[in-house]
Design goal:
This protein has seven helices and seven strands; from the N terminus they run H-E-E-H-E-E-E-H-H-E-H-H-E-H. The chain has a three-stranded antiparallel beta sheet. The longest helix has 21 residues.
Length: about 180
């Protein structure tokens, strides 16, 4: 079996649970350690090893780490990389924690790239981190809408059309009618 075939075997059979919970964002995620633990059964079975290396590739305006995950059969390597910036302004962390956090993130994504871990269903990919999205705007579709009458009164009282557009989605004909007031 070639190294490519061994990698394809891991990529298609790989399963790693999201065992970590982010209490701030209220979502589960998988860590680099979870991914490495899930690959261990394949290592002896397929005669391969996984290694991870890191290096700082830039330091201006902030450090950027390049993390490389490699799958090897002792003769050939297949690699995947991830680039991660180190947030030096992160509050509440000592410098080693800042680099450690970036390192963990880089490892997770380099391994994810190597093993084709699909995170499209991962809440980390769609997490709002507790921030609420803006509510959908109400629509004024015609001059028959009750909101249209309020908009007319607002503009006639000195209000601005831009303020209405921030609150409402206006049909083109309604916007033209309000501009004429």
């Amino acid at each position: 079996m070639t190294l490519n075939e061994k990698l394809a075997t891991i990529q298609t059979k790989f399963k790693s649970k999201k065992s970590r919970f982010n209490s701030f964002g209220k979502y589960y995620f998988r860590s680099a350690e979870d991914i490495l633990e899930a690959t261990k059964p394949f290592l002896l079975e397929l005669g391969v090893s996984v290694t991870i290396s890191e290096q700082i590739v830039s330091s201006d305006p902030f450090p950027i780490m390049e993390t490389t995950a490699a799958l090897s059969d002792g003769k050939t390597n297949i690699t995947a990389t991830a680039m991660v910036g180190v947030d030096l302004d992160q509050k509440g962390m000592q410098m080693p924690q800042k680099f450690g956090s970036a390192s963990s993130y880089g490892k997770k994504y380099a391994l994810g790239n190597l093993f084709l871990i699909d995170d499209t269903q991962d809440s980390d990919a769609v997490n709002t981190h507790g921030k609420k999205s803006a509510p959908a705007k109400s629509k004024i579709a015609s001059s028959n809408d009750a909101a249209y009458d309020k908009a007319v009164q607002y503009i006639q009282g000195g209000g601005k059309l831009e303020a209405i557009k921030q609150k409402y989605e206006l049909a083109p004909n309604v916007e033209v009618a309000l501009q004429k007031l």
